[in-house]
Specification:
245 residues, L,D-transpeptidase catalytic domain-like, eight-stranded mixed β-sheet, single chain
């Protein structure tokens, strides 16, 4: 079995690099204004849940069918994640199902990480996701999978996860603060819906697509593991692109 350990969070980001990133980000007016506006709000929300701010780890979990992004967090590597709050995704394109080629207007489904913080986005502020991942490269179009999938402001999309500008300000500050606090890999898991027996039956009735159903059944294993344990496993794959949970 081929295994890619992409989910382990090694604290390899040097302090000097973190300070340089902090300086570069806060030199941008959009970031500095958001930082000043939302840091206290976020601190109070996290402390109310018994979690220090900035947190040790955060985890973003998204459900496309209800346009919702959840924030979970924990104080150390050995503790369980606690639910902190959720945000409304203000628009989504495509239908339920993974992104498989450039131009399909699909929001990806699967396990990703935040790859980049863009303070000069055309859509106010944006955070790049690590699409395509290994699973996408094996199961999607071998010629052109597309890319540039962001969580961003502006409330418009052709495959990203857009927020209103005030919401992206808050999420951007949260993720950047956590990154600067040492979490170099912030996981973002994207699901079609909350997996239950009833919802799987709905998918079977609505999408007569064996390939999608096999993918969702595989993805559900990771969803179920987190629901039971409130912990995350490293992201791993089989050689043919299935997730291993």
């Amino acid at each position: 079995m081929y295994i890619c350990l992409l989910g382990l969070c090694f604290n390899t980001y040097a302090q000097s690099d973190a300070e340089a990133l902090r300086t570069a980000q806060l030199s941008n007016t959009r970031v500095s204004q958001a930082w000043g506006k939302y840091t206290d709000t976020l601190r109070k929300a996290f402390e109310k849940k018994g979690i220090a701010y900035p947190p040790h780890n955060i985890y973003l979990r998204t459900f496309k069918s209800i346009n919702e992004m959840e924030v979970w967090a924990r104080n150390n590597d050995s503790s369980e994640y606690k639910f902190v709050k959720s945000y409304r995704i203000c628009a989504l394109s495509g239908i339920l199902g993974p992104k498989r080629f450039k131009g399909d207007r699909q929001v990806p489904e699967g396990c990703y990480f935040i790859d980049e913080f863009n303070p000069k986005s055309e859509y106010y502020l944006s955070m790049l996701l690590s699409y395509p991942n290994f699973s996408d490269t094996k199961l999607g179009d071998k010629h052109d999978l597309g890319g540039d999938i962001y969580i961003h402001g502006g409330c418009v999309t052709i495959g990203c996860m857009p927020m209103t500008d005030p919401v992206i300000q808050e999420i951007y500050v949260l993720c950047l603060s956590t990154y600067l606090n040492g979490q170099n890999n912030i996981p973002v898991h994207i699901y079609p819906l909350r997996f239950t027996t009833a919802s799987m039956n709905y998918l079977k009735r609505t999408y007569n697509d064996t390939t999608k159903l096999h993918f969702w059944t595989n993805l559900r294993s990771g969803y179920d593991y987190f629901e039971k344990t409130h912990t995350l496993l490293p992201v791993m794959y089989t050689p043919d692109g299935k997730y291993v949970f």
